[in-house]
Amino acid sequence: MAKILVIDDEPDILTLIKNILHKDNHLVTTVTNPEKISASEFSNFDLILLDVMMPGMDGFSVCKKIRDIVDCPIIFLTAKAMEIDIMYGLGLGADDYITKPFGMGELRARVNAYLRRENRERRSSIFISGVKFNLLGKEILVDNKKVPLTKSEYNICEFLARNNGQVFSKDKIYETVYGYDGESDSSAITEHVKNIRAKLAVFKLLPIETVWGIGYKWK
């Protein structure tokens, strides 16, 4: 089961796609106007199906707007089959095209293939809030540049990012990162977070938010 966003200005197409993908127990959100979705909401989905030809903001514009903030597969739905359009869309960061009209079997197979591939890739990496976590190498990258974090700083970032949106106290973060046998105390977390913020601020990123009186969360 995956969370899938479908954007198309034709309600009948949205209903059709939703019914098809429900057969695989996916949670499908349908939208006719992409301008009504905030930038942060796009990152809540595992895959995005995006119509190209829409009034107002077209699919190419949407893809260009969100590609830097989402790491999930983006598949265009389009009646256009010309090579120049396909190349342009892929150049903006789309992963694939499905040409209208499409068959039920083709849509299900294409969507599930991308979800399987995405699940395999996410075992070794996570991309969230503009930060890529190399889980095997225990490092993070921004724009393919390694951020020079200490082991403790990396572990704090990974813990918060894996639990994106949840608030954790300094004590809980310390316990998770150092275990019960840590030789310092939770006040060290404050200093680590300060250093992490300074290093990510170089890339104009501030993903760790202070929730006053409670602790920290990755946003």
List keywords for this structure.
219 residues, alpha/beta, Rossmann fold, Arc Repressor Mutant, subunit A, four-stranded antiparallel β-sheet, 8 helices, 40% helix, elongated
- Principal-axes shape call: elongated
In CATH, the architecture of the largest domain is: 3-Layer(aba) Sandwich
How many DSSP H or I helices? 8
Q: Can you count the beta strands?
A: 11
Mean pLDDT value: 88
Can you tell me the CATH superfamily of the largest domain?
A: Response regulator
In short:
The protein is of the alpha/beta class and 219 residues long. It is built from eight helices and eleven strands.
Question: What does the model show?
Answer:
The radius of gyration is 20 Å and the shape is elongated. Strand 8 and strand 9 form a beta hairpin. It is built from eight helices and eleven strands. It has a five-stranded parallel β-sheet, with helices on both faces. Helices cover 40% and strands 21% of the residues. The longest helix is centred in the middle third of the chain and has 18 residues, at 104-121. By secondary structure, the chain is α/β, with parallel strands linked by helices.
